[in-house]
Amino acid sequence: MAKQLNVSLIGNPNTGKTSVFNRLTGLNQKVGNYPGITVERKEGICKLARGVKAHVLDLPGTYSLNASSFDENVVIEVLLNKNDKDFPDVAVVVCDVENLKRNLLLFTQIKDLGIPTILAINMSDRMKRKAISLNIPELEQRLETKVALISSRNNKGFDELKELITNYKHLSTKPCVDASVIAPEYFDRLKRTFPNQDLYKLWLVITQDVNFGKLERKDFKGVASFETESKSNLKRLQQKETIKRYQFINETLNETLDVDTANAKDFRSRLDKILTHKIWGYAIFFGILLLIFQAIFDWSSYPMDFIDSSFASLSEWLKNSLPEGDFTNLIAEGIVPGLGGIVIFIPQIAFLFLFISILEETGYMSRVVFLMDRVMRRFGLSGKSVVPLISGTACAIPAIMATRNIENWKERLITILVTPFTTCSARLPVYLIIISLVIPEGRVLGVFTYQALTLMFLYLLGFGAAIFSAYLLDKVLKIRSKTFFVVEMPNYKLPMPKNVLFTVVEKTKSFVLGAGKIILAISIILWVLASYGPGDFNNAEEIVRESAMGMDTPEDEIETQIAAFKLEKSYIGILGKAIEPAVEPLGYDWKIGIAIVSSFAAREVFVGTLATIYSVGSEEEETIKNRMAAEINPANGMPRFNFASGISLLLFYAFAMQCMSTLAVVRRETNSWKWPMWQLVVMTVIAYVVALGAYQVLN
Amino acid sequence: MPTIADLNKGQRAIIKEFSVDLVPLKLLEMGCLPGNEVSLVQTAPFRDPLYLNINGSHLAIRKATAMQIEIELIP
After folding, report:
1. How does A419-433 read in b/e, with b if 16+ C-beta sit within 10 Å?
2. How confident is the model at residue A215 (pLDDT cuts 50, 70, 90)?
3. DSSP of A77-88, one letter per residue?
4. How does strand A117-122 pair with strand A146-149?
5. Is B1 on the interface with A (CB under 8 A)?
6. CB contact residues (below 8 A), chain A span 240-269, against chain B
7. Distance between CA A659 and CA A393 in Å, rounded?
8. Residue A246 lies in a domain
9. Is residue A633 part of a domain?
10. C-alpha distances in angstroms, A105 versus A96, A245, A413, B31?
11. Cα separation of A627 and A324, whole Å?
12. pLDDT for the residue numbered A259
């Protein structure tokens, strides 16, 4: 077999790098994580000419090789370590034709590493409209590389790009900027100490702030002595280097790039006038949020009803067609209802990621950052905290990772600590089912349903709790750090359907698979615990019939009583009864208590757990919702899920830190157990107290 | 000397120098360096942050940072 080519895709954020990746690899891609760190790793296979295949790695977007986050660090690690299995045979630097000047900075750095580097200039479809013309042969000569003019939107130029990749051996590996001229004496000393090393690589290793994982500094023995140069001196040299590079880029582009600035009043500035307007900007942002919630609640209810009833029928069908026995019961009463409890939320999660990825793709998210920065700063946050808080509505884990681009550590820490208050998609299952049980139907102004408004309120409550606790933390935490903030305002783009679709499918898949595993395991455990028990459990039938003797109880009533009695005497019943005193003041019974405890693994387990508990011993085909609605509180004969206990549950889930994975990510991002433990204790206490108060007042 | 924070919307200027010793490297990497042309595109309420066009790249910075970047207006 021919050797596979290693290709690294590198580029600034907002250059359409991901769509280039999608074009190159098609559906042949895999998304995972780099070992040990939570940085997304995307790789795929690209078919080249003459049967050659290329392994394409889509590296995280970065503005330069001076890493200031884990994501950017990955780029350096791959590019500096020749023994890394991902070390590229050829690097493809993706640039946006409208931002060539800034994009070329990264290109010159990578070129200087001595890696064959192709310059792929993307979005060439916009050149005509923007009156941009490029002298490609001249550019190729000055940068000593090959240039591919591509458009991932129109699928143009990719054959040429693939051709260049195939023939990478013909590319020059000469550097284009000599970094050592910024401090000749210093670099001279470096060269004498390490005669066999590449100077620019050494320089990069010395100046990085981030800890290197695989690529440890001891690989370059003696490098430490060069750090004796004071930190600020090194920083000054890095600045000199950057200025030097820009000089080179300016000279190059002066000769090769021509932009007719006459049509400056373009689409972009007209749209910015509205979207970042002091009043309209905020009104539009709020309107978009409202639209998202309406979609999540109202529009997705149709596919959800269908999924719910399908799983109920599947369960019933399995029960009837498989031979009777424990195994059939395990599948029909344990696994299928448990899985149904997760599959049902696919429509909503897909909607949520659809909106989030459209907002990101269009470039609108940066405008929100700009609009919100001043407001957020009042609460000790940054405008960039808006992105984590909004993506927190999908999942707190990527949201907490998205805080990495917040430059100020205090603002970043506060954002990490408060993000779990925002309503993540895992809370949705719990909210939705309880809202549909306890909030009446009907519409306000004939448009928004009461139920959608309740959901909106819960989201606002989450945001409110996040903002308010940020305000308190800002006052309490004594951390001094430099305030600094810079955000790119990318061009507006029409989202590419293919990119959006990829994101939605990928995120939904990982949500379902990730949660699915936990839910499957918990469903099995719960079913076993609910289907077996000590002592009275095994004589349930006799005990119930004995006590019913003489009374004129109909047979099916007795059956129900037996099932209820069995559940109470099962292992899970005994466990549940033990914790009942703690949850009773909040209006819950032991079944809900068990669901809350098991949902600590992940919130959405709550619904699956109740589905499993309720379906054990029940004969009829029923949806989860109907089962919950049928639950009666024996103390007062009222439905178990009434307005008071429902609101109490909603509030509990609004505030509680019910997610192990989030704690693990917070631990990793803050590098200490102190902060996640704080979060866990404080949020649980708040949740308990608020739920208690609500139930006692409403009941 | 005027700074970026003094710019009016639509006004153009050339970045002269930074009044602080250690400029955040990221700012330079984003193209905000002496000699480059800057203009104010849009301001958020209270004129903070500022949405700038620097040499064709668009970025937003806070007022506090803008006040450290000295400029010379283009008449």
Report:
1. bbbbbbbbbbbbbbb
2. very low
3. HHHH-TTSTT--
4. parallel
5. no
6. 242-243, 246, 259, 269
7. 14
8. no
9. yes
10. 12, 7, 30, 9
11. 23
12. 82
Q: How many domains does chain B have?
A: 1
What's the pLDDT score for residue A458?
92
Domain boundary among A170, A200, A231: A170
**What distance, in Å, lies between the first and last C-alpha atoms of chain A?**
73
At A406 the pLDDT is: 83
* Banded pLDDT at A212 (limits 50, 70, 90): very low
- How many pairs of residues across A and B have Cβ atoms under 8 Å apart? 106
Of A112, A141, A170, the one marking the end of a domain is A170
Q: What distance in Å separates the CA atoms of residue A335 and residue A327, rounded to the nearest whole number?
A: 11
* Structural domain for A34, as ranges: 5-170
A349 shares its domain with A485: yes
Which residue out of A75, A208, A246 would a mutagenesis test of the B interface target, given it has the greatest number of B Cβ atoms within 10 Å? Answer: A246
Q: Is residue A540 part of a domain?
A: no
- DSSP annotation of A620 reads S
Q: Which domain holds residue B65?
A: 4-73
> Nearest CA to CA, how far is B13 from chain A (Å)?
16
- Asked if residue A261 has pLDDT above 70, the reply is no
Q: What are phi and psi of A197, to 5 degrees?
A: -100, 155
Contact B26 A243 (CB under 8 A): no
Say if residue A164 is in the same domain as residue A274. no
Q: Which residues of B touch A69 (CB under 8 A)?
A: none
Helix (H) or strand (E) holding A147: strand A146-149
Nearest to A90, CA basis, from A175, A189, A170: A170
Query: Quick check: A363 contacting B, CB < 8 Å?
Result: no
Min distance A100 CA to chain B CA atoms (Å): 9
Comparing A605 with A155, the larger pLDDT belongs to A155
CATH classification of the domain holding B60 = 2.30.30.90
Kindly tell me the sign of the dihedral angle through the C-alpha atoms of A437, A441, A443, A449: positive
Report how many domains make up chain A. 2
Report d(CA A352, CA A394) in Å as an integer.
7
Q: pTM here?
A: 0.79
CA distances from A198 to A191, A219, A449 (A): 8, 13, 66
Residues constituting chain B: 75
Q: Does residue A552 belong to any structural domain of this protein?
A: no
- Strand pairing class (A117-122; A53-58): unpaired
Out of A71-75, A262-266, A280-284, A477-481, which region has the weakest mean confidence (pLDDT)? A262-266
Is there a contact between A66 and B27 if contact means CB atoms under 8 Å apart?
A: no
What are the backbone dihedrals phi and psi of residue A12, each rounded to the nearest 5 degrees, phi first? -65, 160
pLDDT band at A163 (very low <50, low <70, confident <90, very high): very high
In angstroms, the CA A55 to CA A48 distance is 10
Judged by CB atoms closer than 8 Å, whether chains meet at A489 and B29 is answered as: no
Asked if residue A438 has pLDDT above 80, the reply is: yes
Q: Inspect the interface and report whether the beta carbons of B49 and A484 lie closer than 8 Å.
A: no
The shortest C-alpha distance from A364 to chain B (Å) reads 13
On chain A, the residues whose CB falls within 8 A of the CB of B29 are 63-64, 66, 102, 105, 242
The tens-digit pLDDT sequence of chain B (75 residues) is: 899 999 998 889 999 988 887 788 888 988 898 989 999 999 998 898 999 999 888 999 999 999 999 999 988
A419: which residues sit within 8 A by CB, 6+ positions away?
Answer: A388, A389, A392, A396, A399, A400, A403, A466
Structure tokens at A601: 């693994």
SS3 A424: coil
Interface of B with A in 54-73 (CB under 8 A): 55-62, 64-65
CA torsion A100-A101-A106-A109 (nearest 10°) is 130
Residue A297's pLDDT band (boundaries 50, 70, 90)? low
